[in-house]
Each structure stands twice: as C-alpha cells, then as structure tokens.
Amino acid sequence: MSTLMHDVVVIGGGISGLMASIYLAGKGYKTALISRGDPVCCLSTGCIDVLSTALNPLDGFGDLSEMHPYHLVGKKGVEQACKLFKEIMSKSPIPYVGSIRKNREILTPIGTFKTTCLVPQTMAASLGCRDEYVHVISFTGIKDFYPSYITSRLSNTGFSLYDAGVSSTLAIAARFEEKGFAADFATWITGLELPPGKVALPAVLGVNNPVAIMEEISSRINREVFEIPTLPPSIPGLRLFRALKAAFQDLGGDVFWGMPISSVERHGHIIEAVTLATSARATRVQGKAFILATGSFVSGGLFATRDSVYETVFGIPVHVPGARKDWFWNDFFTAGHPIEEAGIEVDSSFRPKQTTLENLFVCGSILARSEVMKNHCGHGLALATGLKAAKVCERKLT
Amino acid sequence: MSIKTDVIIIGGGATGCGIARDLALRGVHHYLIEKGDFASGATGACHGLLHSGGRYVVNDPEAAHECITENTILRKIAQKCVETTGGLFVRLPGDSKRYRDRFLKGCDEVGIETSVLSPSKALDLVPNLNPAMEEAVMVPDCSIDPFRLCMLNAYTSRHRGGNILTHHEVIEIIKEKGVCVGVKARERLTAQIKEIRARIIINATGAWGDKLARLGGSEVPMTLSKGSLIISNHRLTNMVINRLRVPSDGDIIVPNEAVCLAGTTSITVQDPDNLEIDPAEVDLVSTQAEQMIPSFGTTRLIRAYTGVRPLLKASGTDGRSISRGFKIIDHENGMFSILGGKLTTYRLMAEKMVDVIMEKFALRTTCRTAELPLEGQDELSGYPLSKRLSNMDDIVCECELVPRRIVEQAINTMGTHYVGDIQHRTRLGMGPCQGGFCTYRALGIMQELGKVSPDLSLKILSEFLQRRFKGIRPALWGDQLREEQLVEYIYLGILNMENA
Amino acid sequence: MTFEHCVRCTICVENCPVYKVEPRFPGPKQSGPDAQRFRLDGEKSVDQWVKYCSQCRRCQIACPYGVDVAEIILKAQLKYGTEHISPFTAHLFANAYHLNALGSTFAPLANKAASFKAAKAVLNLLGISREPDLPEFRFFNMERGRRRKGKGRKVAFFYGCHLNFNRPDIGWKIRDMLVAMGCRVVMPRQTCCGLPALGNGDLDMAKKYAQKNASVLTSFINKGFDVLYACTSCGLTLIQDYPGILEAPGGKKIAENTYNVNEFLHSLLQDDKENRPLGRLEKRIAYHIPCHLRALGIGYPAAKIFEQIEGLECFVLDDNCCGLAGTYGFKKRNQDIAHKLGEIASIPIRALNADAVVADCGACRMQLGHYTGLSAMDPAEIIAEAMANSINNKKKSGHGIKRLFQKTPY
Fold first, then answer.
1. What domains appear along chain A, each with residue ranges and CATH number?
2. What fold characterizes domain C2-83?
3. In angstroms, how far is CA C234 from the centroid of its own chain?
4. Is C138's Cβ below 8 Å from some Cβ in A?
5. Banded model confidence at residue C399, pLDDT cuts 50, 70, 90
6. What's the pLDDT at A108?
7. Does C21 touch chain A (CB under 8 A)?
8. Using CB atoms and an 8 Å cut-off, which of residues 340-399 of chain B contact chain A?
9. What integer is the mean pLDDT of A81-94?
10. CATH 3.40.50 domain residues, chain C
11. Within B243-368, where are the H helices?
12. If you average pLDDT over residues C199-218, what whole number do you get?
C-alpha cells in the first residue's frame, strides 16, 4: 500500500470540491483532490446560477425554504464566494463577467432566456440581445444545435450555416484552434453583409482560448459575438472545469483521478484515511480533514435503491423525502421534484448532523434541501458552500 | 364534402391493419381510421411475443393450435419483423411436474415442436438463466415488432388503393334509417372534420370496442384487463423465456431489439384511457422475472408501460382465464365488431373478418395474406441486431443507432407531426436515455425539413417529455434515476423549458 | 456489465482525443456502452471503426459512474481482430519487441538506414507513417549492461522496450539513482510487457509475453523484491492487464508489488529528507502527463519530487493526449490523427516558453519532442540532475551519483 499524507482530502472534483480545494491550497495547505471521474459541471452551461427568482439574486433568499443550505452561508458568504470565483477565473483563459447584485439573461438553444448571474466572457454579449438583431450562425451537419428553434421564437433574428468540414461540437472547437480558421470564418461572416446587430453561435470557440478567438472574430467583423450553450457535450462546462482544475494544480494541489474510494479508515470520531481502489495495490490517502463534495445522483454522491437513498462514500445517513412513489410529481415540468431534497443534513459548521464525525465537512449539491432545479441555484450553491466549508475546515486545521 | 368507400375500418392495431391489407389484396376499396398512431392500443403495449402456442396448450388447445399455425406463417411472410429467437419454458423447483407432462402432451397434439433440455444445456443457450432450474423445454417462440408489423400491413393497403388516416378520431357514426352508413372523423392536429361513407363499418378498436359500438347504437360486452410490463436496459436473454406453470403474472420475458420486455400483470379496469402504472406492479413483475433470470432483480430498468387486453366478457372476473379466442359480431346495422384475439393470430382474425365482408358483398375471392410476404420489408435492417454496427455515420439516436436518413425518411414518407410516430417507426428514443437527447434533435430535423411549424415544436417537445416521463416514473431508481436527473438538468437547466 | 451504468452524459466524449480530430470514429460513448447493447454473442463483428480507438483510457478515467469504456472498446477490438484479417502493420507492431531487438542488434546501421528518405518511403508503403522519426536504437542496450548493482533495499527494475533498446542511458540513470538512495537494483530477464501485441489485436501473443515476465517477476517478488517500472504504459499493463485480461499467473501478486519508479523514489526521498539529496536546478519544464499515468490512479509522483527541487519551475499539463499512443501513431492510417493531436498537445507546452518538455513515457517524448522542438526528457533526467547538483554542492567524493554525468553507456 502506498500512503500519501495531506492536510485536507477533498472528495469530489466538481465546482464545490474545486472551490474548497483551491481555497485551501491557496492558503498553503497540502490538499488532495480525489474524484471518481469528471464532474457534472462539464455538462452544464458553464454559467453560475445563484438564485433566479429576483433581479438581485440575493433578494431571492426570502423565497427559499428555511432549511436551504444557502442560509448556512448567508448572503455575505455567497458574495465572497462569487468574488473569489471571479478572481480565480480572471487568471484563466476564460474570465467571468456579471455582478452578484444583478441577474442577467443568456439565450438558450431553444430560444428561451435563462436567468443566471455570472457568465463566461464569451457569453457576455448575450445580454440585451432581445433588443437587437441577432444573426445565429450554426454549422452544417451539427447534430445538437438547430438555429430554427431560436429564429422561430424570436422575431429580430436570422441564421446562416457555415461549413466547418466537421460536424461535432468538439471537432468544430478543435478547428477553431487551428491557425487561420477563425480568420476565414470571420471573412465569411463579413461576406454575409448582415444588418447591424450581434452574432451568436453555439459554444464552439475552442476549448483552450475561447476569449482570444472570440475577440479575433469580433474585431474582424466589427460586431459583438456571443456563444450559446449547447446540450452535452458542453464546451463551456468543460472549460470551466479545466480552468478550475488547472488553478488548483498550479497551487500545488494533487489530483487523484478516475478511481472510486474502496474503503474508509475511521478511528472514533476522526476519519484518518481513504483508500483508492486502483487496479491492485491500493493508494491510501491520509488527511487531517476531509471534505465531501460528491454531488447528487448524477454524479454518484447519492444512490437510490428501490426504496431508499444512500450516500456512496461514507455511508452517512441521508435525508430522504418519503417513499419512492413520493419522489416525483406526475408532471415532469413541476419545478423541483421532491427527490431533489435528498441529501446530507449538516450543522452550521457543515458537519453531517447524523454522525459524530469531527473532521468531515460536506458541501455542494449533496447537501439536503438544496433543490437545485427548483431554485436554479446549482453552481452558486456549490461555490458558496464549497468556500464556507473550506473556511470552517481551515479553522479546524489551525 | 363526403368521401365514399366500400369499407371503413376503425382501429389501426394489428387487427385493423391486417384487415386493411387483406381487403387491399382482394381489391376492395377501404379507409382505415385510427385516432392515434398505429398500434396505440394493446398491439403496441404487449410483449411483442410471436407465440408458439405453448402457453395455451394446457388450458386452450384450440388457441394454441391457431398460434402455431400463424407463428409458422408469420415467420415466413414477415421475416424482417420477426426475430427467430426461439423460446424456453423454464421449470423451477416447486413448479408442477404434472403441468409439465400435460404441457408436453398438449404441444405434441397441437403440433408444436418441443425439445427438452437439461439445465446445463439451457444455460449454454441462455447463460443468465437461474441455475437452480429443473429443466427447460425449447419451443419456436419468436420476438416480433408490433409497430413494424402494423406499418407493413398498412403499406400494402396504401400501395393498392387503400387509405390510411392516422391521428383521426371517429366522433360520430352516421346512421340513416337505423343503418350505419358512415363516420365523422376529426383530425387531431387541425380539428378538421372528415365525413366518410361506406357500405360496411368494422369496429376493430380493441379495448375501445364497446365505446365505439355505442356510437353506432350497439353494445359489446367486454372485460378490460390491464397488463403492465417493464423494460430492461439491455438484453439479458436472446431467447424468449416462459415459466413452465399455469399461466400467471409476470412469467414471460421477451428479447426485443436491444432490450428485454418482462411482464405482465392482469388487473381489471373500467376505462381503457387514463391508465396508471402502480409501482407495486413493477415490483411484482420484477420479482417474477428475477426467478427465471436472477439478474433481472438488479438490472437497470429503463421504463414501464401498460396496455389493456380487450377480452370478450365472461362470467368470471379473472381476465386471465377468459379465452383469448376472437369473435366477430354482426350488429346487423351495417357495422361489425371484431374483438378478442391476440397479436399472434391477427392475420387469421383479419382473414375471417374479410371472408365475412366478402360474403356480404357476394364476392368470391381468396385470401392470400398467408402466402404473400409483407411488402416494403427491403428497407428494414432486420436482424441480427449486430448488423447495425457496421455504419455509424450521422446517427441521431445514439442509444438505438438510428441514422439521420432513416429519421428523415420516416418524417418525409409520413408527413408526420408527432415525435411518437417517428419513435414507433425508427425506435428513436426507445433506448436507455428514453429520448433525452435525440428528441431535441428529431424536432430540429423536422423543423429543418419544414414539417413542423415553429410554434408547435416546443409544444410537441413538452408533450413528448411529459408522456415519456409517465412511463419512466414507476421504475425510477438506481441508474435510471440518475439518467432522469441528467435529463432534467438538460431540459430544465440548460434549455430552460419550463419558461417556454 | 458496467455499461449498464452509462447515462449518456458524454463526459467520455468530451475527453476523447481521437473523436475531436477523426470524424470516422464515433467516440467512446457510441463505441463502448451504446454499441455494447447491440453486440450479441455469437454474431460476427462488423464494427471496423473500433480500430480508431487509441486506448488512451481517458474516457474511462473521466467516467463518473464506473463504466469501463476503454475496456469495452478493447474487447470489441480484440473480437474484431480475431474474426477478420488484420492489416500488415498490426502484425508488424504486435511484434514490436522483436523489431526493436533487431534494430538494436544492427544499431548504427539500422539508424542510418532509417534516416534515408528512401527507407521512409518504403516504410510508408508498408503502412508506417512518416512522422515522427523512428527512434534511434542502441547496440549497447540494457540487456547488455550490468545485471546487478548496489546494496540495500531490493528492487527489480522492469525497464521496458523503449529504455532497453532506445534510451538505455535513462535506464542506467534510474538504476544509479536508486543505488545512490540505498537500493540493490537487479535487472531481471524480461521481454516486452505485451501491450503492443494487445493493442494490435494479438491477445495470444500478449498472453505469452505476460506469462514469461510474470514467472520471472513473481520469483523476484517471492525473494522480497519490489518491482519498479519507469514506462507508464508498461506499468499499466503489469498492474491492470496482467491480473486482468492477460490472465498471467501471479498477476495479482505482481500488481500488488509493482511501483512506479518515481512513486518509489518519492518515498525514499521522504525517508531521506535530512540528507537533502535534491539540490538546486534552475529550469522551466512543461511536465506532460502520459495518459497511462493518469490511468494508474497514483497521482503524479514525479511532480511531487519536482516540487522539492529548488529553482525548478514545473507546469503540470494533463489535459491532452500526445497522439502517438505507443504504436498507434506510427501507423499510416492514424498518421493524420497523431499529427493533429501532436500539434494540439504542443500548443500549451510552447506557450509556457519551457526549456524542456518532460514525460514519463517514451512515446510522449518522441512525439512532443518532435512537435515542440524542445528537448524531451524523462523525469529521471531532471531528478538525477538535481541530485548531482546536491552532491556537487556538498563537494562529497566517492559518491556513486557523480557517475551520473559521465557518458559511459553502461
């Protein structure tokens, strides 16, 4: 067995886990980040939804159920988390724009508008596109983007198709990173002789340097350009994940990717180590404190059997809303099915309520009552609870 | 404006489509009117099992004989709809040996070829079987695709002068002097009403038989028996598996395309519409299936579905013991009802019905539906399944490997507005993600082809997602619950559909 | 049955290097869990497009639900290979070990010949791509060198074909570092780990190689030796495939007693902290993580060592596959793919203005050295240099590490 010693071991490499890891690594703690695989944020729009019920997202606190985990963070905590996030991303190839005091809209692939708070710079110009002419540019053969959804819904729009020679979003993004491709693309747009307004396209402006590519096109065609998030595979989601991971690694953090945790060593109220099920000789990762950020059902933090829900790493008792027949409403579109409430209940220091463990902290969508779809608070909650849990953890370490 | 024809067939299930084909081949002008898409009743909600008849030999040898005869015929004429999987009747510890003896004797008498296999031989054929089984009996059961079957029967009708009106609901039966002379049918999408007059009207509406008969002033006493089935994510068996015992709930597992269908239950209901699947039914079927194939208990289920068996009313209340034989009722007012029966014997039912019509018309014609192979099969990929892996270009539904050209073909040939129609014909959206990704794509393609008006597409997408959810909800746990949460993230999170 | 867990999220697709540059490859999701539902027993394989998968394993590492995507595809590749005639290059590269041995025996000549344009044209006709250049061979390979050296903790060094026939100097550097850290290093009789054969569809040949190595390695383990590997692909094969698909006797024992050399060195260095064996080294390096190192799940141990070297600026790059993927990129039909991926992987490296690119895998070094134009080094070379600086600073004599910078081949 190989043993590696760390100060903090974060389990779960999603937005929440990454936020906690970056904060702690930045403060000089030896931090390990263990993840069974890539996180669900890779499939997201890449935007940070804080709360979408009010124009000022923080005003939405009043609409939340009293047990919502946001209350454990407080409005100030949410602000701090968003601020730190923007700082981190400003050093990456995709800075984020937006203000914690004001929600903003982005255009979706079906021509609706999604309310969110912080967006990558490549989506900045989506704001205000209701009031201007928007020309949607898609690519021949692309399977997951149909401009007609948008142009049929919104009046002041038009569309064209560009032949990129390839048809998957990832392949097109790779082409945009080739020398000269963006310039040719821009020339073609100019040739379309469009009326004044903006240009929108599915999010394919490369994975590594999207802002530079967007700005090159924008300056060549002399109009604003913005990306529209797509169905998975989602390039903005991928960029967000990679930027945060790189930030963590640049701070000297260690990543252990792709292996599930096969066992946990616990001594009284303290967790001492977790073991990774590598093919043969296990890798034992020891830590003084542990942070659980494994997410909800999709990410595998929670698993539902026919009649119950369990937490997949430590086996911590899970709050389950009723029996299986109660988990979902009949109507698919009802905001927030009851099952969304499922998760780990924590106290004000983010320790699981139903255990006596002293050095385990929980954050992200695995928290009970986060009701992410109902409240449209996914990434915001992840960032806020990630940072808060990390701070509490830090106090424990000192 | 009134349309005139000789025969109106109401109901586009296997029976109705079979009648249409037979009429077409015998040169009779007709209209088939169906309120949904083909096979939207029991035909589309059954096991998809082309019975050898084994299940009925002990209690209903006549029905069993019909089955084996039709089984042989359909294997010949519907090659691309039928997967010749073979079937096994599995006897588990505790199952009656006497029944087994009667079973073998009955099969012999009726003409069903059997072969008794030891457990090890059976496990060679189907490794997932319960190793504790006592023995297995091989029979010529097959798996059949009911949608394709209906479609191809309708194909013949269309190409020989028949007319098919799907998505048209019969709202009135026109009577003149006490005789049924025609129908009024409302097109679902436009609400436009068509009037069609005919010499004979056939009620082949299955579970809706009584409702429809009453429109013409007649009654058809029926017992409606609801049956629910579950679908596993992948093929746990390549052969049909039956339980060798007195027929009961949950004792059939059928491989169908890349999944397995297991069922069924038998619950008497009053209304063929508004069916709900009780989670208890899902658990029951799952438990029964698990006895024959142990991994069924833990395998991923992608959805459940339910349908209603249209049974002729009997005095008892157990829907299972009512004969599955069929009956033709002459209401003596220009309308006939044909009820009962099973998918396997649809062709025979159609033949008998059309024979009656020919008699009425005083025409002498021979039925050729048993000899002539179904037309239009060349375009189907057929079996074995693994053939479909050879070309992965431009796939729209990745779970079920449905390429774009097939989807476009379906859209173009039918001029359809309904995603369900595309699904039935191409299997788009019938895989593990249950249309999570590909429905969005299919609608996008329909828009590109100008087949759906822009305002409608989101409405259609919403309706589709709602309907889909109904089938998934009873079986939501484990991996399928994960799948569902992902689909929610996409439609509610990324696409923001609730604000559409 | 892990494909059951697939929810079609496409995270694997987001990570697949081949998918984004080769439209003929349907991607890991379609090739793996999607297609698996249609692969029925007893039916002949028709999925020829599985050959485009380079087995980098990135899909499998990225999958959050434990779907063994790469393994599903590997099995499909093997099945297809047994049912159809394999192309000439498959047979050629399955026998990579023997070709390398041949090249090494005729080393100066072989190197000269391979560099001729005509030779390249001939090789191209045979199905071998034009770039990167074939690696140079060394006559004085590791098999011809010392079999035993040093005193102390017993380690058996599985050096692998690339170090053996092409870069024995790195192999000996590693040996000498271990010796300096108090190990008794033995070079067991070894043959190819078996991965080229496995990756080229010859499961039987791969199993034969595995059996041979397994019997030698297990006898060493039974005598109290730890087995070390430097090449991360050899390592992955020993640890995952020997107890797995190659069914080598003693495979589990090997997997439990085999260490990555940097992982091992790191723990030795931790134990030896007071002596401060690592000196200062002013260098700016781009550390490209080989795909198979990620697949091993042990983190990046060399990076932990680099952290301790004063003056060393190390940037870890683990988001790209170099594209060579062992023998994959040497085949003409994959040439375009390997070329595009090589270019893509070199962009962030060049953007760092690094002095050198570092990678644990010989293939990564060949490919990235070619596409970045930088010097491509093994972590051992960096660590050895730092160690030598420490010794030189302390002006100690008679220490074995001094010889690290002498040019003697063995």
1. 2-95+238-397 (3.50.50.60), 109-228 (3.40.50)
2. Fumarate Reductase Iron-sulfur Protein; Chain B, domain 2 (1.10.1060)
3. 6
4. no
5. very low
6. 94
7. yes
8. 394, 396
9. 96
10. 276-387
11. 279-292, 346-361
12. 94
Nearest by CB: A37 against C11, C19, C256: C11
Is B491 domain-assigned?
yes
Say whether B466 and A332 touch across the interface (CB within 8 A).
yes
DSSP string, B473-490: GGG-SHHHHHHHHHHHII
pLDDT band at C410 (very low <50, low <70, confident <90, very high): very low
| Cβ contact B38:B369 at 8 Å | no
Smallest CA-to-CA distance from B397 within B430, B444, B419, B420 is with B430
**C123 and chain A in contact, CB less than 8 A:** no
Tally of domains in chain B: 3
Residues B90 and B237 in one domain: yes
Segment-wise mean pLDDT, segments of 10 residues, chain B, 500 residues: 92 96 96 94 93 93 92 93 94 94 95 95 95 96 93 92 94 94 92 95 95 93 92 93 94 93 93 89 94 92 91 61 74 92 93 94 92 86 80 90 89 76 86 87 86 78 86 90 91 81
Q: Which of B435, B338, B352, B420 is nearest to B166 (CA)?
A: B420
Which is nearest to B254 in space by CA: B243, B269, B245, B246? Answer: B243
Residue B71, in any domain of the structure: no
Q: Is C189 exposed, middle or buried (0-12, 13-18, 19+ CB in 10 A)?
A: exposed
List of chain A residues whose C-beta atoms are within 8 Å of the C-beta of residue B454: 148, 151-153
ipTM confidence score: 0.93
Residue range(s) defining the domain that contains residue B172? 2-42+147-221+323-361
pLDDT of A363 over the 50 cut: yes
Pairwise CB contact (< 8 Å): C243 & A280: yes
User: What architecture is the C276-387 domain classified under in CATH?
Assistant: 3-Layer(aba) Sandwich (3.40)
Whether pLDDT at A98 is above 60: yes
